[in-house]
Amino acid sequence: MAHSKVVIIGSGPAAHTAAIYLSRAELKPVLYEGMLAGGTAAGGQLTTTTDIENFPGFPDGIGGSELMDNMRKQSIRFGTEIITETISRVDLSQRPFKLWTEWSDGPEDAPARTADAVIIATGANARRLNLPGEEVYWQNGISACAVCDGAVPIFRNKPLFVIGGGDSAAEEAMFLAKYGSSVTVLVRRDKLRASKAMATRLLSHPKVTVRFNSAATEVIGEKKPNGLMTHLRIKNTATGEEEVVEANGLFYAVGHDPATALVKGQIELDEEGYVATKPGTSMTSLEGVFACGDVQDKRYRQAITSAGSGCVAALEAERYIAETEASEDIPPPHANPAL
Ligand SMILES: Cc1cc2nc3c(=O)[nH]c(=O)nc-3n(C[C@H](O)[C@H](O)[C@H](O)COP(=O)(O)OP(=O)(O)OC[C@H]3O[C@@H](n4cnc5c(N)ncnc54)[C@H](O)[C@@H]3O)c2cc1C
């Protein structure tokens, strides 16, 4: 059975930044990039989008897949071993930690690998609504990230819609108001879930309208390859009445699902299922297990913040490995006193 000092699970900006730092530190990291893990290609969420305009260093923007290919090459260049398999089971109860891969993870199967330290960088997925038309117009008018996509030309001075009633929906709507001709927030129920302060700001915003008891039921648009959305069918959830309105942008703010099923019950998760980390660090509730990127960040969810936290995880894992190697008696894994 293969053993590594450090294993990274994931393949987005967080995982690859950690891999670049750890391989340059000559720790020979092994990175499991996943085989369509959680339905997303190796490379993570950025492989599902086109131009990234806010990642520093690319003044003309860069394609999401190209950016991730570059990060992957950089990880390999310094000696990261990349394995295109999904980690489907881990045992973090004893050191070394044990990891199994998909299809070879039965009770009788030996682990694929053991590791002294594990970095969890499995990311998160924006929830979708599976509306008719959603597949066709995803990224051609529909987005799950206003900060990422709001500034692109197709949304400038156009009627935009946000779905959701919480703080994220309110934040996204007010952000989009800088660009759109109007922003309408569709709230399924008759009240907002957002905090009082946020709700007050939203309801008093001159460019934002909140439509209660309203749900989008269909996205309509140009019928040609890469056609853009142009209209939205909206249903009044109280009366059942439907209408079609002009809409050039639709932003989902209905939550994200962090990919934490793998470690649930073994390390501490917060009430929304994200890995709990000590603020400002990548340390989880278990020593030797670190988390970075969207799997532990429900606030910023950006490529650059994920990359930054990947760097933090690598430096902390490196220090942890050095400290455990220096001590003669390797202690059993125990709760992280820092958390
Ligand atoms: C459509 C879209 C557009 C975006 N645009 C921008 C933008 O313009 N600018 C910006 O800064 N951010 C943007 N983002 C957000 C950005 O993509 C995320 O913040 C960032 O990718 C999170 O990185 P991450 O490293 O946490 O992991 P992710 O990108 O979430 O990747 C993690 C990946 O790890 C792999 N994985 C998961 N589980 C396992 C497992 N068990 N075993 C092995 N592998 C596994 C999967 O491939 C998974 O996708 C966008 C997001 C989306 C969805």
From TrEMBL:
Domain of life: Eukaryota
Database matches in InterPro entries: FAD/NAD-bd_sf, FAD/NAD-binding_dom, Ferredoxin-NADP_redctase_2, Pyr_nucl-diS_OxRdtase_2_AS, Thioredox_Rdtase
Cofactor binding note from Swiss-Prot or TrEMBL: Binds 1 FAD per subunit.
A molecular function (GO) term: thioredoxin-disulfide reductase (NADPH) activity
Keyword annotations from UniProtKB, A to Z: Disulfide bond, FAD, Flavoprotein, NADP, Oxidoreductase, Redox-active center
GO cellular component annotations of the record: cytoplasm
Occurrences of domain FAD/NAD(P)-binding (ranges): 5-310
Assigned EC number: 1.8.1.9
Pfam families: Pyr_redox_2
Catalytic reaction(s) noted: [thioredoxin]-dithiol + NADP(+) = [thioredoxin]-disulfide + NADPH + H(+)
GO biological process, alphabetically ordered: removal of superoxide radicals
Cofactor(s) in the UniProt record: FAD
Family, similarity comment: Belongs to the class-II pyridine nucleotide-disulfide oxidoreductase family.
Subunit and interaction comment: Homodimer.
The protein, known as: Thioredoxin reductase
